[in-house]
């Protein structure tokens, strides 16, 4: 961001921190009046998670919240991104269902403790844990009804916490909600056309309907916040989208076009209506009348409904035109270059390799296209085979350090060389935790969690990031710190 003297610098309120999500860490699923979420039974169903793991205990953070905050304080973070479990606040989910005072009390004391330790709460209202009650009542995100229930839930949160929370994220990664939950069927509620996987679902229609209802729910919640809460509470509200950089596999015209097509579906599906006011043309062509339409009145509420660009990003894909995957814009992804070399270091998950230049390129693309300050709300790496190592070995997570080293250099270059206005960096994740369909097999934490004892052990990557966060303001010491570590 250009300063008065013209030299780019980090924003004075830049937030360093770590991120988590309620279902991945809290456990205590049947405590203090919490209702069920769609992930409760889904994760308990045989075959839905890689190792059979579920969310019943996770990192036990509902019980160990004080210990967690003490560790965040020890790390010296300026902010912590966490999510609120809708079913703890309104156990059955709906606008006429009772609010649970114990749920309010839990997050309220949590927020107070963060603030008492000088840590800014950065709150996600929805990170995939839909109340089961709403799924049972009317099929959850498939039904427009949900807009009213989601907005009511948000109102309860703004009223209860908005005096202290100044950073709100309405939704985490709508692409994942729609595609993984209702297209591929790998996340709750597991709808898909693949009848070997699920008796219910239509992957050709449902994801587009779900995405549409998520956008509207987000937009109406923002409208509510801006009209009734923002004038007194003075906070910011926006959505956070997943999205990875794409590069054409080679310079054939089809492959060059495919890189933009995949960005149009991975990111533009949500970002274009929210920031620019319409679905991408490529999606309209690809989907025809399967893509729902906004009324003029809705569009007026959707356009401009995010105060900033919330960015979750992990990797870069090489794209080739072809295949039948509409969720990737009819492109195929690979990490193998035409000469047979790999793009970067392979993570534990098949979809993730290290590629810092892609992070920098994506920051630039998003800033140019959507023209808003960017909050990086997730970025991280799972070391291959980490779960089979001893605790000591796992804490020497040099591939993760290498990943964050590259990411911090890219962040630095985007700010100081490219002039991108970036406001936060939240590595994923504070702790190893329940990695959705991967169960506990895949570890993303900068802190190792021994699930037998629930003890936490800082990994080398935590120490690296803590040191970077102490040095980032001065471009020279930042770069020299990064290049002398790891
Ligand atoms: C984030 O999503 C989530 O917000 C977080 O909860 C999670 O723990 C973290 O990542 C680590 O996974 O096409 O089926 O191969 C990351 C975005 C988008 C990454 C979809 C995986 C490919 C899935 N994800 N992507 S698939």
UniProtKB/TrEMBL annotation:
Reactions this protein catalyses: Hydrolysis of terminal, non-reducing beta-D-glucosyl residues with release of beta-D-glucose
Domain of life: Eukaryota
InterPro entries per UniProt: GH (IPR017853), GH_1_N_CS (IPR033132), Glyco_hydro_1 (IPR001360), Glyco_hydro_1_AS (IPR018120)
Enzyme class: hydrolase
UniProt-annotated catalytic positions: 378 (nucleophile)
Presence of keyword Ligase: no
The EC number(s) this enzyme carries: 3.2.1.21
The UniProt record lists the keyword Acyltransferase: no
Keywords: Carbohydrate metabolism, Cellulose degradation, Glycosidase, Hydrolase, Polysaccharide degradation
Record GO biological process: cellulose catabolic process
GO MF, any single term: cellobiose glucosidase activity
Family that this chain belongs to: Belongs to the glycosyl hydrolase 1 family.
Role this protein plays: Plays an important role in cellulose degradation. Shows hydrolytic activity against several glycosidic compounds.
Protein name as catalogued: beta-glucosidase
